[in-house]
Amino acid sequence: MKKLAWIAAPLLLLVLAAIAILPLAARYYAEAWLRDQGVEEASIGDIDFNPFTGVLRIESLAANGANGELAEIGLAELNLEWMQLPGRRIQLADVAVSAGRLDIERSADRAVAVGGLRLPLENAELDGAVPSAADESVWGVGFRTAQIDDISVRYRDEALESTLTLEHIGLDRFATWAPTDRSRLTADLRLDGARLELEITGAPLAAEPRIAATVAVEKLQMAKYLALFDVPDVSEVAGVLSLDLDATIDGRQDRSLFASGEFAVELEQVTGTLEPASLEADSFAWKGDISASVTSDSARPAVSGSSALRIGGLRISHREKPIRLLTLNEFRLEDAEILESGEMQIGRVGLDALELLRYEQETEPALTISKASFRDIGISAEAVVDIEKVIIDSAVVRAHREKNGSFRLVTETVDDIGTMTRAAAIEPEPDQTDGLDEQPTDGTATLFRIGELDIRGPSRIAFTDETVVPAFSGQYTLNSFRLIEMGNIDDARPAQISFDIEQDDSARITGEGDLLLFADERAAELRLDVKKFDLTQISPYVPVYHIQRGRLSLDSKANVKGNQLQVSNLVEVEKLKLSGKAAGEKDMLGEGMAMPLDTALDLLRDSDDRIRLELPISGSLTDPEFGTADVLRVAMQNAMQKAAISYAKNALQPLGTIMFVAKLAGQASRPRFKPLAFGAGDDDLSGEATAYLDKIAGLMRDRPALTITFCGVSSIEDLQYMRAQVVSPTAETIEAGAEAPEGSDVAPVTALPTFDAERIQLAQSRGNAVHDYLTGKHAIDAERLFRCRPEVEEQDGDGPRVEITL
After folding, report:
1. Fewer CB within 10 Å, N- or C-terminus of the chain?
2. Distance CA 594, CA 664 (A)
3. Band (554; pLDDT cuts 50, 70, 90)
4. Measured CA distances, 473 to 313, 505, 706 (Å)
């Protein structure tokens, strides 16, 4: 026994010495290893290891790198269960790390330093193989509990500098040899001051793993992290992120994967830049649920889910010009669903207080919409868009045409967007396209349908045009606008349109009809009704004339079939009054008419100062000349002239007709009535003449603006009559100045009377008879009757008469 005691005592002392020296040796070799891995300075305050309990305790570990990287651990403690080692299991009952700091830095050459350690570590070989839990030759690792408290991790590279504070991380029950046991990981973190909470439960190493995760982020400043994503033409993105996520992931042995979850994402103070525009939003809130599955035989994931989205205070501005492209008080997307088939269904999209296109220094945008709602939207996997109903409340459209003829605000915006689009569509170099799949295009347009578009009043349209003098300015109120079944899904189904517009609370414009726009042969039937439209507003567009007064009513029917257009118009103009513009302007309306414009208008005006006429227009839409103003001008001339002549003829029938005298130099011909016939040498009105004048008087009563000119004519018949009264009918005479025939015994007369004065007086008397009859019997205002200089004819003509012209 004594011998054994003498042998055991030294061994015990040796073991105790080894136990005492082991922490010192461990500390020495740990510090040396850290320096071998690139650490400039390394120190460990204390290492305490109890082989009986398996507790290893390290205090005050510090390591400094060459660039000032720092790794510090105030306390690290682990409890190793020795009894598990014979079974090739490293079982740690408890692991705790607290009060530390770790710097991670990535240099430009992509080298990574962790607390001074340069990665990859020397003599560290990782083949990437994942050991199987069933492989007994592989050591297993397990934890009963592990926790990390109060550790600060600082990361820095060329693009990002960030601090992650590990306030608490806890791991319960994890072991590689028990893959079906459920583990739980919880984490309370702060990323640059923003709170992050994480909880994961499940069996990630099981043959059919199931994991449930909860993630919460509160007010994380996103600017520095979004800058890490290199998206073309997108930069300077920022915002404050809050997130709540509950997700479940299920795996199968056939490598199928199923995931589902509920989420809520909130962004505040969102800003970003998309060339050439900048974006701001006060808030962005998106919540919903989503499910996804990937199977071994599926070509792509099957995704389904529902969500709702709200964006508040959205503003999009031009980056280089003082133009606000869009302002939107609120955008709402509700009841949105994605089906596994790839189809998307949206219950409702709402817009509140939308403004489009406004110069920053101006208060009124080009378009304002108080509210808009899009309901029951379907988008198929083939990108077919079906919208059941669109409702727009209180829209205001403002169009301003500059003196150069452009709508500057719209033109600038469209040109800039076009420039951006062309720049983004630069074709790649030829050697960059090798191996790329070319997507064939067949030119098929995107299919769409709008079941009903309803613009509700009161909406307004304001138009200003500075290309004319004076500048035109018009205000119109849209009481209603409806468009039913618009789209190209069923190209044989016509769309139905109707609208109701008021001008300054006086004029009214209504229309309705059917439109077939997407069929191989276009077709349309439209009806337009205009009531009491103020013509003075369009006076700047009328050449030569100022419209001093006048109102238009119109009943129009248009028919389009293919390229052919047929339009019938019933036009009524009230109390039209024109005056001439500056001299030298070309008379685009009166040019080419067979009668003067004022004459035609006088014939058309009735006793109530109304002008009524039919105005047909027809032609081919593909004819380049059909779209010019000449088509309307010629149609207007023909309609006015036809209506004027038709009225006059009908008013005079059956006693008289109307015709045209020859044109004077540079002037249209003036219409004339059938001459009023007289007996030779007579100035009395016959019964037929008075009946004819009664017709003319009736025409003048119906057309208060009409004036007539009458000219008495003495013909050769009057001369013959007057001579017959003073010369014997049996006497042979020759005219004065003529020689008697040779061998004749007729005595020459010195001269036959010409009766010049008498004939002029006779012609004037005939005109006076017409004047006196119209003023006397019919009370026609003498100011509407114009005499002209009496005429005397020396050659054969139309006989004794009075010429009457308009």
Report:
1. N
2. 11
3. very high
4. 32, 15, 34
Quote the CA–CA distance of 550 and 571 in Å, as a whole number.
13
Name 611's bridge partners: 573, 605
Tell me the CA distances in angstroms from 324 to 239, 264, 401, 421, 471, one per residue in order. Answer: 21, 30, 19, 19, 26
Tokens 């974006």, residue? 279
Q: How far apart are CA 573 and CA 553, in angstroms?
A: 6
SS (H, E, C) 225-285: HHCCCCCCCEEEEEEEEEEEEEEEEEECCCCCEEEEEEEEEEEEEEEEEECCEEEEEEEEE
Give the pLDDT confidence of 615-632 residue by residue, as tens digits: 888 888 777 766 666 676
One-letter amino acid at 613 equals L
Is residue 211 within 8 A of residue 204, CB to CB? The reply is yes
Q: Can you give the pTM of this predicted structure? A: 0.75
Query: How far does Cα 352 stand from its chain's mean position?
Result: 16
> Does pLDDT of 587 surpass 80?
no
CB 727 within 8 A of CB 736: no
Which is nearest to 384 in space by CA: 519, 490, 497? 490
8 Å CB contact between 72 and 100? yes
Contact at 8 Å (CB) between 257 and 291?
A: no
Under 8 Å between Cβ of 273 and 241: no
For 275-343, the DSSP string reads TTEEEEEEEEEEEEEEEEEE-TT-SS-EEEEEEEEEEEEEEEEESSSSEEEEEEEEEEEEEEEE-TTS-
DSSP code of 158? S
Range from 166-170, 466-470, 477-481, 619-623 carrying the lowest mean pLDDT: 619-623
Rounded alpha-carbon distances, angstroms, from residue 468 to 397, 403, 576:
21, 8, 21
Q: What is the pLDDT of residue 83?
A: 73
Q: Which contiguous run of DSSP H or E holds residue 218?
A: strand 210-221
DSSP secondary structure string, 77-128?
EEEE-GGGGGGTEEEEEEEEEEEEEEEEEE-TT--EEETTEEESPTT-----
Tokens of 410: 């719209």
In sequence order, the 6+-apart residues with CB closer than 8 A to the CB of 628 are: none
* Cβ proximity of 464 and 471 under 8 Å: yes
> Would you give the DSSP letter of residue 687?
H
DSSP assignments along 346-376, one per residue: EEEEEEEEEEEEEETT-S--SEEEEEEEEEE
pLDDT digits (tens, 9 = 90+) for 512-538: 999 998 888 889 999 999 999 888 888
Note if the bond before 276 is cis, omega within 30 degrees.
yes
Residue 654, number of CB atoms within 10 A of its CB = 6
Q: How many CB atoms within 10 Å of residue 160?
A: 12
